[in-house]
Design goal:
By secondary structure, the chain is an alpha/beta fold. 37% of the residues lie in helices and 17% in strands.
Length: 308
């Protein structure tokens, strides 16, 4: 139903394929960024779910420059998938947490390869300003460009409990400024943070109201060495089943605008450091279950979306 596929939601990978004529592969990059929520600028310890890799799923050698990381990964993906086009993806930690002069060098060094068509920059809403957004806006004139904001929830009580270090209004200000610059925005949210179903749906309803360009949905998971892992071991939190998570995903997608691209619903990373839930690595089983649930409901993304 979307992008000439049998998917009942607007899968970002297929959206890119329609846009560029071939499948576009993301190249995950590590430019040595830190995070103000880990270095003591905001608070100590960082978010309770973040491990020492900064949620980086594919680490490169720290000895490689960004440009060399791009070249290496393009060669790898061409061998594995016969890939033709690529997007640079700055994923680990907070990828706007440097002076603008340094950011300019880093970002453009990831775009030198002729087969790189775009860039995606993962960051926090409290780590952008006018100058940084102007830089990214300039890049967007020549490259397909996204900023990915880690929001997690619109509920301040939840953000405080996970030690996020910013509130919802901070996100809203950053989001509005970013959209004014004409930059695509993908918003990350997390399911399972001591919230009720109603509270989770309120977050999704707000993102539907904002008509966000893209969304990534994460299931809260405990990784080795994190505070969340300690809390799990102490019985302070439990995690839902794959089935419950999948049914909730259907509910969420039904109220999102059909134009919102879906960047992530399930993952298979962190398999060596995952503590719980144990089904987190079953990405394709989860997505297949989602497809079956949409079919059972005779439903699809946006069926319950109400423009405001």
């Amino acid at each position: 139903m979307f992008n000439n596929t049998d998917k009942r939601y607007n899968q970002f990978s297929e959206y890119l394929k329609q846009k560029f004529g071939v499948k576009v592969y993301k190249i995950t990059l590590d430019a040595g960024f830190s995070c103000p929520n880990r270095d003591g600028t905001i608070s100590s310890g960082g978010c309770i779910f973040c491990d020492e890799t900064g949620s980086f799923s594919r680490a490169h050698s720290s000895l490689l420059s960004v440009e060399d990381q791009v070249i290496e990964e393009i060669e790898n993906q061409r061998k594995r998938f016969k890939a033709e086009k690529f997007m640079s993806y700055f994923q680990a930690y907070t990828n706007t947490y440097k002076p603008v002069s340094e950011l300019e060098k880093i970002y453009y060094s990831s775009l030198k390869h002729p087969d790189v068509v775009g860039i995606s920059i993962g960051t926090r809403p409290d780590c952008v300003d006018e100058d940084k957004l102007n830089l990214i806006s300039d890049i967007s004139k020549d490259y397909y460009t996204w900023i990915e904001y880690g929001l997690q929830s619109i509920h301040d009580k939840t953000l405080k409990r996970i030690n996020r270090g910013h509130d919802y209004n901070c996100f809203l200000r950053a989001y509005e400024k970013t959209k004014e610059k004409g930059i695509n925005v993908c918003v990350h949210i997390i399911v399972g943070m001591w919230e009720t179903r109603e509270e989770i749906m309120q977050t999704v309803q707000e993102l539907a109201r904002l008509k966000v360009d893209g969304i990534k949905v994460h299931m809260l998971c405990a990784l080795q060495g994190t505070k969340l892992a300690q809390m799990y071991e102490n019985g302070e939190i439990d995690f839902c089943t794959m089935e419950d998570y999948t049914y909730l995903l259907c509910d969420m997608l039904e109220i999102l605008p059909p134009e919102t691209t879906i960047h992530r619903l399930a993952g298979n990373g962190h398999r060596f450091t995952l503590v719980a839930p144990d089904w987190m690595g079953a990405k394709f089983e989860c997505l297949n279950l989602l497809d079956r649930e949409f079919l059972r409901r005779n439903s699809y993304q946006g069926i319950k979306y109400s423009p405001q």
